[in-house]
Amino acid sequence: MASLIENLITELNEEYAVYEQLLQVSMEKTSAIVSNDLDRLKATTDKEQFLVDTVTGLESDRRQTMSNIATVLNKKSTEITIMDVVGFLKGQPEFHDPLLEINEKLAKLARKLKDVNNHNKNLITESLSMIEYNINLLQNLNRAPETAEYSKDMFRKKGR
User: Fold this and answer.
1) Using 50, 70 and 90 to split pLDDT, how confident is the model at 146?
2) CB-based burial of residue 144 (10 Å sphere; 0-12 exposed, 13-18 middle, 19+ buried)?
3) How many helices (H) and strands (E) in the chain?
4) pLDDT tier at 1 (50, 70, 90 boundaries)?
């Protein structure tokens, strides 16, 4: 069981490191959106996708480790959380404390990442709204001369 807990702590630390990189890239993305730098936005999106793929692999490893821990504890893998494992390890500070610490750090980092991503989403939504407004404005300006019925006779008084 000790090796499973060590694996879990290692995997969570690896996930944390990748999530830190993802947070940095997300903040770079904010800057690219604000400055309307499409090349930089594409580059950051590519980096972001690579990191997401990396996290997906790490999460798969962590799920497998959690499944193995659940088996040892005679629980279903869908019914056990990291906090359950932390609770189980209360009398073993060499495992309990590092596991609790990395779990809390990951939760805090996930909240920051969520906030930055929500901010980016709002910036993109506002940018798209502005683009749509400009397109509609240009379409209406181009359409106006076609629909207006101006002629040289329109200002003459009737009867002349």
Assistant:
1) low
2) exposed
3) 4, 0
4) confident
**Domains in the chain, ordered, with CATH?**
2-146 (1.20.58)
113/157: higher pLDDT: 113
Single out the residue of 30, 55, 53, 29 nearest to residue 42, CA to CA: 29
Provide the residue type at 98 as one letter.
P
Residues 6+ away with beta carbon under 8 Å from 72? 1, 4
Question: Cβ(85)–Cβ(5) under 8 Å?
Answer: yes
For residue 141, which amino acid is it?
A: L
Nearest Cα to Cα of residue 33 among 22, 47, 44: 44
Exposed, middle or buried: residue 110 (CB in 10 Å: 0-12, 13-18, 19+)? middle
Q: What is the pLDDT of residues 38-84, one digit of tens each?
A: 999 999 999 999 999 999 999 999 999 999 999 998 999 888 999 99
